[in-house]
Structures are given as structure tokens and as C-alpha cells.
Fold these 2 entries.
Entry 1:
Amino acid sequence: MQNTAPTNPTGQRPAGGSTRRAKPEVPAQFKAEPIEKLDQAALIRILGEPGSEPATLFRKAIACKRLAVIGTKEAVPALAALLGDDRASDYARDALESMPDPSADDALRAALPKLKGLLLIGVINSLRRRRDLKAVEPLGKLVDGADAAVARAAALAVGEISGPVAAKTLQRALGTTKGAVRADVAAGALLCADRMMAEDRKGALALFDVLSQADIPSNVRMAAMHLRIVAETSLKRPRTAPGPK
Amino acid sequence: MTTAGVIAAAPMIVPSSVLGQRAGAVPPSDRIAIAGIGIGGRGMASVNAILSYQDARFAAICDVKNTRREEIKGLVDKRYQNNDCMMYAYQEEVLARADIDAVIIATPEYWHAPLSVQAAYAGKDVYCEKPCSMTIQESRALADAFRRTGRVYQAGTQRRNGPNFVWAIEAARTGKLGKLQTVHANVGTYAMWPPIPSKDWLPGEPEPPKQVFDWDRWLGPCPWRPYNPFYVTGGGGWNNWYDFHGGGILEWGSHTVDLCQWAADCDDTHAIEYVPKGANGAPYSVNCVYPNGVKLVMRDGNNLGTRLADDGWLGMGSCSVRFEGDTGWVETGDGGRIAVSDNLRSQVPERIDDRLTLHYHWRDFIDCIKTRSQTRANADHACNSHITSHAAFIAFELGRKLTWDPAKEEFVNDAEANRMRSRAVRKPWAI
């Protein structure tokens, strides 16, 4: 995780390219342009190609990148089939996350009971990104599951999706979870309350109050108190002029 | 036209106010404890700045390279004459330390937003090198995280505290140029940083042992690809690869578009129209319009020979900007020189020394940590200027004019462009 680009004494990168190294030659099997020019039908065929060697993964990766921009619901089954592939799943998720068609939500939700561990977390995170309301219930069940990493991802996803059902789910989970899972349930509730503010100010403030209690991890507690103060002092708060005397 | 501010060969003296010495001796327990995440050549400038301050201390280093961790620890411990600098391979460990107040993030840019957001929710203040995000969605998530947590954020867009840039911006904002018409932002040279990075891969090579270099953690939020040492070794090897780098527009635009937004009084919004010109790997520009009617010209590089039109652009070094009003203009860039129209000649300072720009920027951050105030390059400003750069990137990649709705943060009537506002983040990471 380090940035080793050279700098001058003022901390600025050099304007010229004198220190740059020449990019190595890219072998033909790792060139993206021919794949990017294909139509959707050809891209879908690539997703079904057998093999897991890097050259095949590369073809699927570029096909998914292109489908992320142009893909329609016809591409969903082939993309969903990759959600269980350790290396290709993130590329498939990229295409599904950006797809406007609701069949992408359906495919991601359908994958929840079929996957475990990191692959499941990836799908949870995609449902979080799409803020799929229908996913709140199945994700809520995962918050109570045995896999702590999955439970934490699910809690944050429920919070990001937000809404009254999400708020109830997380408030309940605050009473049933412990340790790192509970910390992320609280963090999820913070996201949930913040997103609720526009439609349900009263509900959001109530959730901030819950999160301001002493048993909530301090980072979330302080953020909740901060947002509570901002809400109460913002010019956007409900204000009523006094009536005539 | 006149040019001012050529720096004399005088020694650089850092004022005591910048070094945090005005408060007198600061007990170690009261000094702001800062941890570094991913400190390479760029981050070293910031580490050296921190080491010179009386009211801050560099407390820990986190890096996926064991040699880099040890190198930084050696440097820090030597400076402080102790053995206190802690080393970590993973950010979760350093973010869990309650005694760490703030972090400096100097990883490759695809880590910037996820790490900043993670740090904010962990209760840390953040100084993060630019570019601050890889997508429009990440930009919004960044601003939301700091708004929600109330943490202090300073983007590494140090030119916001560069005296010559500040002088030019003040000229634009105080009417010295008349009514502001057009702002120009120097973005990355097409030869060094083409606007659209390559989606190709390099062939895989055997990964180093994880305890020496953790390729999986280095990739972090990026989708997996085979290890190749070119990506990770010195000289910015990750630049110009689509998954790792935002391209030339973002490379310098994160500085110069950011300055233009400030000059145009548009820190709280984004450009609404984007017209790309040129081709990838050739001279290019993106012509934009802000909601208040001010035009923004993103133009590649410093070289006059690459400009697409003879429009007065002087090309005054890296990260140069030019602001044009109906009665005057000003242009400046790295190095401190300022060029102005004849009518402003008498108002140009004789000399602008920009060598302390980074210190001014760090002082702004440290003072805001103490006062819980907003920095000059706070998360909202960074979010908004990055959204303008990302939108220009999308227009350039699609090769067509785009219209942007700043309130809805979506392109108008362009489904493909809207689908390019975000990218999936590799499991288990999220933002």
C-alpha cells in the first residue's frame, strides 16, 4: 500500500516523465481492445468459457467491464453464474451492480443462500451498493448468523439500505449481538439513521438517541451525538414562527 | 503582462508558527499522534513535515512491504531518539489504536477513499494524498463519511495553501479580473498520463512471500489480477492501468480542477456540461460549464505545442491554472510565478515563495484537528471537485457531450454514463 512516486522537496510530483519507466510489452492474450469491441451476445459467450487460467479470467474481466456499461437483463444469468467463482465474482458483481434492470437484484438475492465466506460478503456488498429494499429481510437473518465477518457485512448493508424495517432490524440486533458484530450493527444503525433523516426525521432522531448510549462503541456514539446536534441546529430543521400576540 | 515571483536562492526558513512552536514546549502526551499508511516517496514529504513539528508526532507505520515498514521506523526512531514507532502490516490494527489521533494515507489512489472512510468511521482524522477517489460514488461516500463522523479531513491538494495559487484565486473571487468568464485547469500530459488508462493486464509472475509483500492487500479494493512486479515497484508502476489509476484528468485535475472550482465560487457544486475533444494518447481537452455560467477548460499538459487552440494559455509549469475575467486575467503554476494582464501589473506581489506550501497545508490540518474546524481542502470540497473530474473522465471515455445534474448527482438522459459512476469493490472491502 505504498506510493513510491518520486517527489521534489516541496512534495510535488515531477512535471516531466524522466523518472518513469517504460511499460512492459503486453502479450496479445491480455489486450482488452478486441474484447471491448464485441457485442453483448459475444460478451455473454465469453462468460461461459471453461478454464480458470489468467488469460481466461482476463477475457471474462473485460467482458464484465463492458457489460457493466451496456449489459441488459439478458446478461444476468451468465453474470450470476460467476458469483461463485472466487476470482471472477468481483468482475461479475461490477456488471450486476451497475445494471438498472431489477433482475440484477433478484440474481444477487438468489445467490445469498448459495454462497459462504468471502463470496457471500461480496454479494452482500453489492446488495448494499444497490440499496435493494427486498434484501433487508434476508440480510437481517445473516446478521444473526455464525460467521462474524458475514454478519458484520450484513449489518452495514442493512444500515446502508436503510428504511423503517432496516432500523427495526438493527435495533433488535443491538440487543442480540456482541463484540465486533455489535460494533458494526451500531455502525450500520448510524448509516441507517442518517439516511432516514429526509423521510423520517423523528425515527432518525430516535435512532441517534439509541446510538448515543454509553454501551455503544465510542466512535459510533460520538458520530451519533454529532449528527444529533447537527440535526437540531441545522437551518433545515423544522421551524415554526411564533403566532401573533 | 508581467511575471513575478521567481524564487531567489535564499535559504528556506520555516517560521515557528508553521512548526507549531508558538505554544511552547508540548508534552509528548499532548502531541497529535499520527500514523502513516502506505508511505512511499510521496508520503515521505509529509512524514518529514510531521517530524519537524513540535505539536505532532509520527507514532506508527502501516505498510504491506516489510522493508518499507522497517525503513520508516528507522527514520522516525532516529529523529525522535527512541524506539517507539510501531509497525503494522494491516490498517485494521493501526485504526484500532485509541492513542492514534490521525492518519496520513499515501497509498496508491484506489485505496484512498476506502481507507479514508474506514479511518473516519474508526474515529480518526485523515490527511489523504490525491486523487481522493476513483469514482463519483466513492467521492460521495467520502464526503458522507466525514459529515457523519465530524472527523477532520484534509485532501493532499496542497496547492489550496500555496501562496501563489491563493493570490490568483483571491484575484478571481474579489473582482480584480472583472466578471469571471473562464477558468483553465492543466490536467495530466497525454504522453505521461493519457486520460483513459489501459485495461490490459501484464502477465503474471510468482508472488513474493506474504510476509515480504502482501499482493492481496496491495490490490485491496481492486479486482484480482495476477501479480507483476512492475505494478508495485518505484516510479508509479500502477499508473495508467484502469483498475489502479484514474487517468490524466484526475491525476492533475484533482489539484487544478479543485483550484478552478474554488476560483469560480463552485466549491459546493460540479460542472454541469462536459464536451470532450481529442483522442486518448493525443492532445485533448474537456470543455465544461459551471452552474453559474463560468466555463472550465481542462487542458492537457504544460506544453504549448499540445494546445488545441491559441487561447492565451502560457503553460506555467505543472498544475498551472488560468483565470480569465472580462477585464483581466491571471495565470500561475508550480514554482510560484504569477502572470497577469497589464491592468493588474501593479498589484502582483514582487515575490511569491511557494516552497512552504506543503508545510502550510499540514499546519492547516493540524490546527483544524486542534480546533475541530474544516480544513481548506476538506472532504466536501474534495468530493465536489473530484466529481467534476470523474464526470469529465466519463465524457472522454464515452466520447460525447454529457449533461450533469448536480442535485441528483446523475447524468441527464444518458444511462451508460450513469452506469459508469461507480465500480464494484473487491470483497471483503466496501465503501
Note: Chain A has two domains: 29-130, 133-235.
Entry 2:
Amino acid sequence: MSTTTYNVIGTRPVRHDGADKVTGRALYGADLQLARMIHGAVLRSPHAHARILRIDTSKAEAFPGVFAVVTAADFPEAPADKIVDFGEGDTMLSSLRGNILASGKVLYSGHAVAAVAAVNAHVAAEAAALIEVDYEPLPCVLTAPEAMAPGAPILHDDLPNGNVAELIRYEMGDLDAGFAEATVIVERELDTATVHQGYIEPQNATAFWSSDGRIHIWCSTQGSFVARDASAAVLDVPVSQVKVTPMEIGGGFGGKINVYLEPVAAMLSKKAGRPVKLVMSRRDVFTGTGPTPGSRVRVKIGVNDAGKITAAQAWLAYEAGAYPGAMVGPGAMTVFACYDIPNVLIEGFDVVVNKPSTAAYRAPGAPNSALATETVLDEIAEKLGLDPLELRLRNAAQEGTRRADGPRYKRIGCIEVLEAMKASPHYNAPLPGPNCGRGVAIGFWFNAGLPSSATLSVNADGTVNLIEGSTDIGGSRTSLSMQAAEVLGLRAEDIHPTIVDTDSVGYTGVTGGSRTTFSTGLAVHDAAQIVVEQMKARAARLWAVDEVAFSNGVFSANGQSFTFAELAAQLGATGGPVSCSATVNPKGVGGSIAGLIIDVKVDPETGKTDVLRVTSVQDAGKAIHPAYVEGQMQGGTAQGIGWALNEEYFMDTAGDMRNGSYLDYRMPTALDLPMIETIIVEVPNPGHPFGVRGVGEANIVPPLAAVANALYRATGKRLNRVPMNPATILGL
Amino acid sequence: MSVKVQVQTTINNEPVEFLCEPRQSLLECLRDIVGLTGTKEGCGDGNCGSCTVKLGDRIVTSCLVLGVEAAGESITTVEGLAHGSTLHPLQKAFLDHAALQCGICTPGFLIAADALLQKHPHPTEEQTRFWLSNNLCRCTGYDKIVRAVQAAAIEINGAAQ
């Protein structure tokens, strides 16, 4: 556990962008107003699968107030083999391009077909409705098992295995021998429905294609450089021709890494000669952006009399949506990641179906697979008469444990998280009465490294400006500033962070993969160390000494000393400003383990579940700003509970989403949840100077299984379908 | 395009005049015409609460109110909560309790919470959760929001008797 003492790290300063965000001054993407700006609307397919026979835009183009109309025909052809790198994953340019505006076929209801720019959004929507599209409807297929079956409608002619875009297989040890050693074997198959990240701010993009050929894009994105590179690829221009200014972002959870509107706004602007703003409606967000895959997962686990897992097998089929890329890879890699298992076979299938092209959602792929593993283990613990946490402790992954997909763990906090759950007040409290149940589960997420850049400039008043490129989605301006302050011996409020556009800072990867506090934090740390060295050199010059010490914000040598601010005031006279940059591409990523304890009460008549008490436990490595770590844990837990109990895309047989509003796609409200207790475990990551692991994602992995296990204890039923809503619970 | 209507109203205690089409929502008028973009649009159909403003003595989702309905009314938006450069106790409590992550729902929560504290000076956790269930937050799980509102209640109205 962490023992180092810090001055700033571990405290809870108010966030630097706080005043702007509670007074309404902070500018999100849709808040942007530019001179001569016009507004767009996107026409979307009403069919889940259809050939486009004809698009006639003439009536829309002639409509008063319309400046431009675009279809796929306005975009350059995508080379067949070009790949676009999103940092955490990549995609074929042809898929990205096809998803942005359909050509040839539409592959899901909501697939964008054309777009209009007009004097205002109402006129644009009226004009879009005048675009005539002739479709030849085709049979659609909506789930992975159906899409894998012989005779299923085929989405893409160029995939070699029907609708299976990719097959993943990880094998370790001798599976048959392992199961032969087991005394208890349980096998279960569980389905999860398509769910959405549910960020409150809809996607938006404003673009201006200047007459000098440069394209300026303002948008709410998790990664300005990714948005730049992907837009440039779709528009077939060099990356340097595009400048992305990241606006404040209203949630993302993985769903705002991809681009949807940016290249369309750019092309409309090229035609119109004006800045064009596109903002999605909520229904567009549900049907036109990437939800997370629905899935079918089968898990078989064998355990011996000593409670040791001898073999484990998983079969995973994930719905990619319209284009390949269902995150089944991470699902497969995480399915048994919490445990030390000698004999393993994992098979994963990435299956295209006529639903929106899926995107990342907080630990993408992992909750689906952990649901199966963690409910099977719960059943095994019951059969063995073992406490469910004890069974997990006997098999917990630790330093040196090898995952079936290859890597051996460095220091990992699985045992520490399980011990913290076991010792928690919650786990040791009685349940309140009948129809109640308590469930537990744990989960793993890798976290990401990826490149980051930062620049620190010292002001004459002893404060420091921080320039960085990581979208601040939940307080990272402050968690980064705190790391600079710790190195420089300053207070968090002495650092002034600014997130700048892609022309103004070195390449920085997405705010995703729980990487910002880790990776951009490392860049900030390294830049701060360079600042210290340069400041030492200035003090050495002033004092005519060779060696200067620096501790707690004070430079000293031979009994002389300067505070940081005193020396900062002398920089002009000692050689000029101090402004230092660092870039990193760190390899020392630390995975995070999270656990959840949840108590539920089920009404036996209505099947309604009330959540009574929740405790989220997570290994943060080191919590830079504990309140923000708690916030991540609480947020991921709430999303996981919504996923477990409520949330679902209701698709009719024609593939149309019938609940594309917040009224009908019901996410948890304040009334649906209790307080969410948190226990931060700190097993420092040796790959980061302060031990940071990253905390954004692992917390959403346990809730599905923990809720399922709690419902079993409350009802005596093992449910095989998520959401575990009243209909599922009552078996309707 | 339809003929525009002149609307005279009061926003954040200042007289305001604007021209809008009859079909434009109050939310659109506030954001795109008056330039008060602190009020956010999350859904456009009254289900997320991000566009909550005070209209007269009640709170409304401004996406479901027409701009022309503002005529003669008094409206409070998030921009009107602070007194000059001094934050409203609710705004300060949201910062002290880390009750926002992305911040897009925050303006709506602040307006709704302000109305809650006027009706219930010392709301219970249940009353707070019930009142705020009109407002969706996807980042926080609501824990820190509920705590912030209850802390602000004590700051504004003193400890409950």
C-alpha cells in the first residue's frame, strides 16, 4: 500500500474550471457562435437494411434558406485497405467513411444518408425532409446468434466469413485435463442487450473550410487529435490541414472518440463557404452514434475441492453493429483476467448486425464477459459452501499471474480489493429483511498509455501555466495541475491549466482508457522536473555555485535560498523565461481491479428491484484527487446498475429502435439510487512516479454480475438475461 | 420562414427584448438569440432537465416552452444565480463537494435545487432525490450532488431544527 507523503496529491482542491461550469460560462460544443454561421440537419435511414437506389437532393437544394446539401458522393473514395488509428483501437477508413454517410446500402435504422446546411436548424430539417431516397429494403438481422446462423442476411459482401468479422482465440494449458481435475463444474450462457453510454450532451460539430484550404473544426470530443486525424482521413487531406479546437465536453464514456458529424460539417462548409454547425437530437444520438454491443457469453468453470479453479472456458459473440469492431477482443482478454487459472480456452466472435455501429463504453467489452464469469463463480461458491469472496481470494490474480492472452501481471491489486471488500462495514452488516439479497463481483480493466504532451511556463509571480491537449471530462485539469504542483512545491491553484487546439500542443491521445491522469500526468510530471532543473541553473548562476538543492518549493545552496516565486521573479534577468515541454508514450500502464457489493430488495408481485446499499471498491494505484476518484467509482457503478436493471435498446423486428428517448430509454435517476459508498484501495503502479493506475473504467465491470448475484439471493432465480428488469425477473 | 414576434421579458432581473419565430422554444431563444448558453439542451423533449429554468415562480424545462410564452414573465437562468462575482451557496457547494464531472447537467441541477430549497429549506435525502429526479446526470451517480444540495441547505437556512 502507498506510504509516500505528499503535499498536494491526495488533497481535494476545487477544480480549475469549476467557476465557469457552475455559472454557465463554460463553452460546450453546441454553445459556439460564429459570425455568418449556418446550421445543418442530417437525413437518416428509416430502414435497418436496404439498398439505396437513388438520392435526389434537388428539392432540398432549391428550398429557400438552404446553402448546401451533401451525400456520400461528395466525399473522396476510401482506399480499400486504409486504417484509421483511434489510439485505443482502429477502424477501416472504408467503415468510418461508410458510417458517416451511407453509400450503396444503409446498414441500420438511423444510418446517415445526406445532410443539409441552411440559415437555421428548422429550415435545414425541413429541407432534409425534401430529399428523396429510393430504397430497396433487405431482410435485417439484429442479434449475434442470428447473424452467425446459416442463411442469415449478409451485411458486407467483402467479409470472408459471412457476418463474422473476426475470430479471436486464446488458449493456455490443457483444458480437458483441467476440467478432469475439477469436482464442481458450472456452465452458463448469458445475454446482454445493446445499451448506450447516455452522455447528456449530444454530439456536435462546427466546421469552417477556409478559402486557404485549412479546415477548422470545433467539437465536443474525447480526443482532439483523433478527431483531427479521422476527419482528415475521411476528407482525404493531410492532418495538418485540419485544426480541431476541443470545446468543453458533456460526457463521453468512450462514445465521443469516434467522429460522426465533423467531416460532414466540413464538407457542408466547403460547399457553403460559411461555418456550419451540426448538433444531434437525442434520437440521433441513440440511433446514429455507437452504443455498446449486445452479447451472448457462455462460460464454463471447473473448481477442485480446495476451491482452486482448474479450468475455464469462454465463448463470446458480440454485436459489432453495422461495421466490424465489437470490442470482443477486450471482452475476451478480461473474461478471466481477475484469476490465476492454469487451463483456459477463450473464443470470441465479432459479429456485424443491422444496428448502429458500436463504440467504446467504459471498459468496453468487459462488463459483458465479467457478468458470465462472476455469476458462475457465485454459483460455484454456493455449491462448495464457500464465501463468494473467499473463493475469489483463493484464485486471485497477483504479480506474475499469466493471462490467457499472454501478458504476466506486474503488481496488481486484486487481493487487496477483495480483502477491502471482505473487511468493509457493508459486507459485515446484516440484510434488512425478506426479499433482499446481497451480491458481490469483481472486474479488471487494462487502462491505456498512449502519447501525451504538456508545456509548463513559469510566470514572474511564481505561478505556472500548463498547456495540454487532454479533453477534461471530469476534473483532469486539476488532477494534472496537482501533479505539476507536487513536483514544483506549489499549490494546485498556482497552476493555470489550459486545454488548447491541435495546432498548439504536441500530439495527445484520447481522454479514454483511464489514461489522462496517468499518461498526461506523466508528461506534466516530466515537464515539471525540467522546470526544476532550469530554475536550479538560474539560481546557480545568481549565486555562482555549482549545485543547488530544491525541496518543498525552495531552492537553496550555501545557506542562501529562494522560494519558487522569488526565483520566478528573476528569470527575466537570468536568461529569459522558463518554458518546458515534455512528451511521453508510457509503457508502465497499471491495470485496475474494482469490486462491488450491492444489496437489493425485490417486490415479488411486481418484480421491481430497489437498490438498498452499494459499496464500490477500486484500486486507484494512487488517488491524486480522491473526490474525483470517488466520483469515477460512483458514476461507473450507477451506469452499471442502469445497465443491469433497466437499460436496453428495444428494437422491433424491422430493426427500428422503439425507445429512442430518455423517457423510454430510462437511465437511473437520483430516486433510483442510494448513496454510493466508496473504498479507494492504493496499490501503487510502479510505472508512474506517483503510482497512478487510472480509475475511469474498471468500476463499471462488476455491477452487472453483482446485481445478478444479489437478485439470486433475493429471489432464488439465476437470470440469464440483462437487463434484469421486472419482466425478466418474473419470467414474462 | 415565418414572421418573427417581438417578446419583452425579464431575464435574471434585467429587461430583455428579443425577436423570435413562433415555433422557437424558450431554450432556443435563450441560447441562440439572447446568447445565454449556460442553459443546456440534452434531449429536446423534457426528459433530461438540462434546460431547466425558473419561469415566474415555477421551474420548467425550457425546451418545452415557447419563446413567445416568456412575454411579460420573469426568468432565472444559471447565469442569474450568482451575486456579481460571488457564487450562490449552491454553486459553491457543488464545487466543494465535487458534484459535477462533465458539468453539462449542472446548470439544470442548480436551478432545480434552488427551487427545492425555497420549497423545502431542509430537504431530507428522499425529498432531495425525488425533486431532482427530473434531472439526469450520467457522470456522478448523484451521490455528491445530493450531498452538495443538503450542505447548501444548511449554509443558506442554518441547521434543521
Note: The mean pLDDT of chain B is 97.
